[in-house]
Write a structure and sequence with these properties.
Poly(a)-polymerase, middle domain, 2 domains, 10 helices
Length: 396
């Protein structure tokens, strides 16, 4: 038996290596030595996959200068105030969440819909993590069924919730719309998405015309795991503020659209907390580190990316196609150049927020920052990635 925290390795591959918390060991290969005549050892060159360059892991060689980041930090705080939801928006989302939860408790206790066997009701998404954006008053709720959910059951559940809301909240307007992930309950001031899933141990013997799609059920269960992990590990205000700001940049940047919310949350946590001295980075440094890692190829299929803490068999760059990873990489490089030249008004949308962040040149009297051209061409790709790992992602 190996000590706790160590991973066993195949025979001939040396002693066990320790895991590197909190994201697992680097995924590099190792070639054992070979022996020639007379017992002479002939070592083959060791095959190493170099990790993505990260200057914040070598602070002795790249010391930080807080004075240089004052303008960036000021711009980030100003943008966060603009995009944070108002107290009225938060209150309306909380009110709708409370009302729908009460309606669900009534349905569960009275068993008014026998086919809806609900075992858990959990908050997820930006409402749960505290990273909501203004004018996007949407909350998410995951319902765990003990039986395979059908489209008819989900539709009946949504209609019953709206019926109860209209009875208890007279004078208010409510509606329900079926969605592929479940259904959507809308009030006058907020929207609540009901995401349906089942326990992972439940066999998925599904009829595509009768039941919800298995990839949607898995995606909704992943959302539940992600919200639980974020709630336990990412309570620092700097992480939440950074997630909100990057989500806002993504909404104004076509080149960042392949980034999913879980990647943003996990990488934001990594950039703030994962340092050699275990001291969290300031907000401005963590923000620069986020886009420096992306621009250095952190999500490319050949990169040594961090492990997914909710699924150790996967890494954060799994699921991005080479074209999407290349698009994110060159967009991040353009954003890094905007940061270097302190073009914060364009980056954070302080002026002309409707413009795309990275699809047009940024010019002034002394500099011209141009978007980078595509570097990925499928017909010339030699080291093609495994499509089972780097196939298209399912988004909700």
């Amino acid at each position: 038996m190996y000590p706790p925290g160590y991973a066993a390795r195949p025979f001939g591959y040396g002693p066990p290596r320790p895991f590197y918390p909190p994201y697992g060991p680097p995924s590099y290969g190792h070639i054992p030595p070979s022996f020639g005549r007379g017992g002479e050892e002939k070592r083959r060159p060791t095959l190493l996959r170099p990790q993505t360059f990260d200057q914040y892991m070598s602070q002795a060689e790249f010391p930080r200068n807080p004075e240089e980041d004052e303008a960036l930090n000021k711009a980030m705080l100003a943008r966060n105030q603009q995009i944070a939801p108002s107290s009225i928006e938060q209150s309306s989302a909380t009110t709708l969440m409370t009302q729908v939860k009460a309606a669900l408790e009534t349905i569960i206790s009275t068993q008014s819909i026998p086919s809806a066997k609900i075992t858990e009701v959990k908050e997820v998404g930006s409402y749960k993590t505290g990273t909501m954006l203004t004018k996007k008053n949407i909350a998410d709720l995951v319902l765990v069924f003990s039986t395979l959910p059908t489209h008819q059951t989900v539709k009946a559940l949504g209609e019953k919730i709206v019926e109860i809301l209209k009875e208890t909240q007279s004078g208010e307007i409510f509606g329900v719309v079926p969605r592929d992930y479940g259904c959507e309950v809308a009030g006058t001031q907020a929207v609540l998405r009901l995401m349906i899933t089942v326990p992972s141990e439940l066999p998925l013997q599904l009829d595509s015309e009768l039941h919800l799609k298995p990839e949607i059920l898995k995606k909704n269960m992943d959302a539940l795991r992600h919200a639980h992990w974020f709630d336990e590990n990412a309570g620092q205000p700097a992480i939440k503020m950074m997630v909100r700001i990057i989500k806002d940049i993504k909404n104004r940047c076509a080149g960042l659209q392949p980034l999913d919310i879980w990647t943003i949350e996990l990488l934001s946590h990594y950039c703030v907390t994962y340092t050699p001295d275990r001291n969290p980075l300031p907000l401005a440094d963590a923000f620069k580190r986020f886009f420096q890692l992306l621009s250095a190829g952190f999500l490319l299929h050949c990169a040594v990316a961090v492990a997914d803490p909710c699924d150790p068999s996967r890494r954060i760059n799994y699921g991005f196609s080479p074209a999407d990873a290349d698009l994110i990489c060159r967009t991040a490089q353009f954003i890094c150049r905007l940061v270097i030249h302190e073009k914060f008004e364009r980056l954070f949308g302080l002026k002309n927020a409707h413009k795309d962040v990275a699809n047009e040149n940024e010019t002034d009297d002394s500099v011209n920052i141009a978007p980078l051209k595509e570097a990925y061409f499928d017909e010339f790709l030699v080291n093609k990635p495994d499509e089972r790992k780097f196939g298209p992602r399912v988004t909700v």
